[in-house]
Amino acid sequence: MSDSTLLNEILEYNQKFVETREYEKYETTKFPNKRMVILTCMDTRLLELLPKAMNLGNGDVKTIKNAGALVSHPFGSIMRSILIAVYELQAQEVLVIAHHDCGMSGLKAEPVIENMKSRGISDETINTLSYSGININKWLHGFDNVKESVEHSVGVIRNHPLMPQGVPVHGLIIDPHTGELDLVVDGYDA
Q1: Burial track 104-116 (b if 16+ CB lie within 10 A, e otherwise)
Q2: pTM of the model
Q3: Within this chain, do residues 156 and 66 fall inside the same structural domain, yes or no?
Q4: Domain with 183 in it: what CATH number?
Q5: Do 161 and 178 belong to one domain?
Q6: Would you state the pLDDT for residue 3?
């Protein structure tokens, strides 16, 4: 095994990080200081920009990330994480924060499936999913309008049968270049 893999670089850095006790400046509890849970996109541009644009530090919020900041299934892992944050981790507000220029915007399933095939996934495997009741084209489809996508995810969360009444669910869109936030849904008005 080569010593120059990304994993080895991470592990070497981590060893020094622990030995020099760098972790001490990040110590906090599992409960968010600002009592919020944020669902946002996994886009690389948001890793540091989003918290800085919102004046958030380590320990301030619970953050859930996926492709597109989407709640695509009301009983999937994203919604479960939001409910756990509310019921067990003291989050009192929910923010859905998508961004302009998202890779999920306009994403069509067909090119993704072709890429899968070029990397060794067989037609048989893809067909098996269809026979199993999974509509892979719908599952891999992105969204056409980021504002409508945010409104949809906010609606799923707000109207979820297990979401307690009175929890504000906000929807925003961030500019991945400037950090400017556009308010789409003000959860206090609901």
Answers
A1: bbebeeeebbeee
A2: 0.91
A3: yes
A4: 3.40.1050.10
A5: yes
A6: 63
